[in-house]
Design a protein that fits this description.
This protein is of the alpha+beta class. The chain has one domain: Sandwich (Hypothetical Protein Aq_1857, Chain: A). It is globular. GO terms for molecular function: 2 iron, 2 sulfur cluster binding; 4 iron, 4 sulfur cluster binding; iron ion binding. This is Iron-sulfur cluster assembly accessory protein. One of its GO terms (biological process) is iron-sulfur cluster assembly.
């Protein structure tokens, strides 16, 4: 399930979620005792980092009224309109490994990232 995002009449590509990211987030939501039929993962963009913008993620019990809501592999993802302008068309993935596990946003709108990969510029 997803709702179409538009900005000034132009369609913004939706957010995709890999199966591994959905599985990990759903497991974490369940561990927090949150209802995965209503609750979800909020993906947002904030000012910060050496490149100017950084991603934020948190669990929310429900979407806000103006959020875009996407559902992939049973995970609901909430994105506010301002953040949608920066992350439209992105893929949320989960990577594990010796260097540490975590969620990663593959964003086609990024023109440069800082050296550590924690912030970006569009």
């Amino acid at each position: 399930m997803s709702t179409g995002a538009t900005t000034d009449g132009e369609s913004i590509p939706e957010i995709e979620v890999s199966e591994s990211a959905a599985d990990e987030a759903l497991s974490l939501l369940d561990g927090e005792g949150m209802d995965t039929d209503i609750a979800g993962l909020r993906l947002f963009v904030q000012q910060g980092g050496c490149a100017g913008l950084s991603y934020g993620m948190r669990f929310d019990t429900e979407p806000e009224g103006d959020d875009q809501v996407y559902e992939h592999h049973g995970l609901r993802v909430f994105v506010d309109p301002a953040s949608m302008n920066y992350v439209g068309g992105s893929v949320l993935d989960f990577e594990g490994g010796l260097q540490g596990a975590g969620f990663h946003v593959e964003n086609p709108n990024v023109v440069s990232e800082c050296g550590c990969g924690e912030s970006f510029r569009t």
